[in-house]
Every structure is written in C-alpha cells, then in structure tokens.
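Morning!

This is the sequence you dropped in the shared folder:
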Amino acid sequence: QVQLVESGGGLVQAGGSLSLSCAASGRTFRDYRMGWFRQAPGKDREFVGAISRSGVTTYYADSVKGRFTISRDNAKNTVYLQMNSLKSEDTAVYYCAASSSFVYTTIPSNFKSWGQGTQVTVSS
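The structure's back. Tokens below.
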C-alpha cells in the first residue's frame, strides 16, 4: 500500500484560501486515483473530490465545485487541494486517500490507503 501524509491545514477566515498537500510514499504514486475527503465533528466522512491517475480528469462534490481544485504532480508523488472562498461549513478534518479502482468512485471504502488527516477551521 501507499503511505500518505497530509499537510497545510490551519485556521482561516471565511472567504479566504488554503492549500493542502498530500505526499505519498511506498508504492508507485501514478498507479492510484487520489481523493480528498473531509469529516466534521458528529458527521460521516464526506467525499470532496478526486483526480485520475494522469491528472487529466477531476470530479468534485457539488458543495465544493467551483471553489476547490485538485491537482497532482506525479514526479513529486504529491496531490494538492486548493480551497478558495472558504465557508464555515468547510470546517473539518481533511483526508487524502488512494484508490486502485479504475472507475469513478466517491465511496470511502473504495479508497484503501488514507492519511492521518489535517484540520481545517474556517472562522466566520
């Protein structure tokens, strides 16, 4: 399995921006579709977005579409989540995850490797 470590979380005011990174190690990074999820206190883990192995295709949850952008650098074994126009409801622990699936998926159980998470707090 691939090992994942997120970084870049923090406290930001509503309307601001934050960029998260997720560094991978252990297996061939480009073999994995990468996803971002988040989990707020008392809520289920929620799909945020994902990116294909090549980085050409991305897809997002409706709640973040137009505000968040996922990208990846296979040479650096890193996937990124750029978050703009942040809202208080974006407050959560954000996780990156890796999937060996070759099909579109937003289900957490289809992602077999997970990072430890990074806290994002948006103050209103």
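Headline: The mean pLDDT is 96.

More detail when I'm at my desk.
O.
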